[in-house]
Amino acid sequence: MRAAILHETGQEHLEVRDDVETVPLGPGTVRVRLRAAGLCHSDLSAMSGVLPQPAPFVPGHEGAGDVVEAGPGVTGLEPGDRVVLCWMPPCGACPHCRRGQGHLCTASLSRLRTPGFRFAGGTGLYGFYSVGAFAEEVVVAAGSALKVPSDVPYEVAALVGCGVTTGVGAAVNTAAVAPGSSVAVIGCGGVGVAAVQGARVCGAARIVAVDPVASRRERALAFGATDAVAPEELRAAGRRLTEGGFDYVFEAVGRSATVRAAYDAARRGGAVVVVGAGARDDRVSFSLGELFFDEKRILPSMYGGGDVRRTADRVLDLWRAGRIDLEGMATHRVALEDVGDALALMRAGEGLRTLVSFG
To answer: What gap in Å lies between CA 356 and CA 295, rounded to an integer?
Structure first.
């Protein structure tokens, strides 16, 4: 089968090969035929080494397709079921899961060094976060396949696998944005625009999209932002549009400089919601004096800040009700052999999500 492969961390290009196969189906696993996969910035971060991922590996963690085979011991999934891939599924038994914080479960990380694919010659390679959606088929743990209704289009379902769930969940679950409040979103890629939509669903009165790329700012307005500014205009926008700063500021970039900008843009007593996935050695500085005096809440939000299954279901319910737009977030489409074009579009800051289609 065909798959896109990064051979060494730090390389910028993927090689699409047709001599790749999945590992054999085993107990508790399912084989999924992919139909659509989205390119997320986290894929680029893994390729560059910002996010830890052994190489060689198949990138991609936003994917949707059909179960074609279920291994021994699998319940609740059978051939023909339409599924979304979940890159960090909860185990259901650890302390985090028992507290209702399954999005913090790290049990699946133990599989990062277990090959999910191999070349025809037998050499193993990994799937990004045990998924590897840039392949025609994957074998994943049953918990990594979330069943969705069969009438949900594959392209819509794929987006629910990460970016949309992360952004909408940050607004709805982590921040619990209050009706009538003021919001700023720094970084208007796929996750940031999803946060814009989540804030709109929650009833925010003012939503300011902040991005250096003019086309992204314009696009954010179409998804519910009331205003759009370049980063250097954020401070002035805060003075013009709020009384002392924004109630909520979402950081969807994953850099210390933008986290600091988000903190400065929030009002005293406001919330800074950190959604972007950054590097371990990228440190942001706050003084104890300002932390105490300003009483701004710093709220990291991982994978939607709540039960992933529940958040994904909520996203699809909102989509069905016409409250959020998922189709419009897929701004570009490429075939697997043209995945390099998708990488170039994301590096250039163009579009929101590029979807890889498998036909």
So the answer is: 44
